[in-house]
Design a protein that fits this description.
Strands 2-1-3-4 form a four-stranded mixed β-sheet, sandwiched between helices. It has one domain (2-69): 3-Layer(aba) Sandwich (Glutaredoxin), CATH 3.40.30. By secondary structure, the chain is of the alpha+beta class. The protein has helices at residues 11-23, 37-49; strands at residues 2-6, 27-31, 57-60, 63-65.
C-alpha cells in the first residue's frame, strides 16, 4: 500500500491523490501536522536524507518514492 503524507492547501498533494486514483493505485492519505511528533521527526529526517523536502511525501514499503516511480 502507498502512503501519501501531505498538508492543507497543498496543490501538489491534490494532484498526487488524483493521479493515484486515475492509476487505480490504493493509497492512504495523512496530514503531516496530524502525525505524532515521533512520526513527524522520522519522516522529516528521511526526507532530508533523500533531499525530498517538498510535500507530498510518498512512501512505498516505508521508503520514499516519487509519483513517476509508481
Amino acid at each position: 500500500m502507498i502512503r501519501v503524507i501531505g498538508k492543507l492547501g497543498c496543490h501538489e498533494c491534490e494532484i498526487t491523490k488524483l493521479t493515484l486514483k486515475k492509476k487505480g493505485i490504493d493509497f492512504s492519505y495523512e496530514l503531516f501536522n496530524e502525525l505524532s511528533d515521533e512520526d513527524q521527526t522520522k519522516l522529516s529526517n528521511l526526507a532530508a536524507s533523500k533531499k525530498m523536502m517538498r510535500m507530498p511525501l510518498i512512501l512505498k514499503d516505508d521508503e520514499l518514492t516519487t509519483i513517476a516511480e509508481l
